[in-house]
Amino acid sequence: MRFQFRKAPNWVEAQRPLHQWYATRLGQSMLDELHSSISTHLTDIFGYQGLLIGNFDHDKDLLAQSGLHRKITLDAPGLKADVNADVLQLPVASDTMKLVVFFHTLDFCDQPHQALREADRVLMDDGQLIIIGFNPMSAFGLRHWLTGWRGKSPWHGRFYTRMRVKDWLSVLDYRILNSNSVFFRPPVNSRRLLKRLRRLEHLQPWLSAIGGAYIMQARKQTVPLTMQRKQWVRTRSSIPAGSIARAAERAKNAQKNRSGDL
């Protein structure tokens, strides 16, 4: 029997089942934790507009704590959002977004590198990218490996480690600002059990590596032209004034000698 790797799901096809999972007790519990945690990542983000890819709860504004004037949601065709499109071909002009949020975008995308390139294209210089994904180094990751073959959402996705995502971002020249994980309760769908185990969330400072989902925040690296100009000015100003004076004197003497020869 030949071993086969699980095929990554298509992003458009994966969105509706993922919406249905987030409507369950377990999904709602995780969404509450993500909404609370991501607020701390948004307080220093200001600008005209940002883009949230993956709109899993219409009653919650995931970007509420940001200083963005306009917040745009994008999801697969047929789902409620400001824009319906494929994440691999964003209908957004280049260099127009101060913030892009990938909400499980990489987990359920068969071309994650292309999705990252699209986010990089639409982000402005010094813009920020926030990636939310399921953590394979957790109880969610264990269930993913045990039951993913059944093809049910969200366990059939591709859960990438934070180290791998960091490597992808480094290739695009992004600087990691923050990275942490949330939701330390097991992936069970019992309202009573989830409520009783909620105290486990207080262990985040000690168990930050094994939360069910991670939040990674990165900034697009750019080198402002003003910095280049200042460096050039400093280079010119570092030439000693005496050297300039001596060079001018030598040029003047050389001109006198040529005049005497004539």
What order do the helices and strands follow?
HHEEEEHEHHEHEHH
Strand content: 15-25%
Q: How many domains is the backbone divided into?
A: 2
Strand order of the largest sheet: 3-2-1-4-5-7-6
C-alpha geometry: globular
Task: Assign the CATH architecture of the largest domain.
Answer: 3-Layer(aba) Sandwich
Helix content: 25-40%
Identify the CATH class of the largest domain: Alpha Beta
Low-confidence stretches: 225-245
The radius of gyration over CA amounts to 26 Å
Q: Kindly name the structural category.
A: alpha/beta
Major sheet description: 7 strands, mixed
Determine the CATH topology of the largest domain. Answer: Rossmann fold
Quote the average pLDDT: 85
User: How many strands in all?
Assistant: 7
Topology (SSEs and partners):
Blueprint: H1 11-22, H2 25-42, E1 46-53, E2 67-75, E3 83-84, E4 97-103, H3 112-122, E5 123-134, H4 139-147, H5 162-171, E6 174-182, H6 191-196, E7 213-220, H7 225-237, H8 241-261
Parallel strand pairs: 1-2, 1-4, 2-3, 4-5
Antiparallel strand pairs: 5-7, 6-7
Summary keywords:
Rossmann fold; 2 domains; single chain; 262 residues; 7 strands; globular; alpha/beta; 7-stranded mixed sheet
What does this structure look like?
The chain is of the alpha/beta class and 262 residues long. It has 2 domains: 11-222, 3-Layer(aba) Sandwich (Rossmann fold); 226-261. Helices cover 38% and strands 21% of the residues. It is built from 8 helices and 7 strands. A 7-stranded mixed sheet has the order 3-2-1-4-5-7-6, with helices on both faces. Helix 3 (112-122) links the parallel strand 4 and strand 5 (123-134). The model is unreliable at 225-245 (pLDDT under 50).
